[in-house]
Design brief:
Layout (H helix, E strand, L loop, with lengths): L2 H11 L8 H10 L3 E5 L2 E5 L7 E3 L1 E2 L2 E2 L1 H13 L4
Antiparallel strand pairs: 1-2, 2-3, 4-5
């Protein structure tokens, strides 16, 4: 199982929202076809066909748990994974 598959499994599983590295989450979204744009500390992800825009900010080296939940909701609502 590749690293991206493991991160995707953690995000969709919802068991460890506070233990997902920010870089891994950004890499996963890029691999799923999202385009990243950075404005200061805000990492914005957009994709054609997805109405929601994802806005991520790092909390040290980890992703913020509420933002991981937002990503999970988008991944569940759109057939991306």
């Amino acid at each position: 199982m590749s690293r991206h598959e493991k991160v995707l499994e953690k995000v969709l599983g919802g068991q460890s929202d506070a233990n997902i590295r920010f870089a891994d989450l950004c890499s996963l979204l890029s691999r799923l076809g999202f385009v990243m744009r950075v404005k200061g500390s805000h990492h914005l992800f957009v994709k054609n066909g997805v109405m929601a825009q994802i806005n991520l900010q790092a909390d040290g080296t980890m992703a913020k748990p509420y933002q991981v939940r937002q990503v999970r909701k988008i991944l569940q609502n759109y057939p991306l994974a």
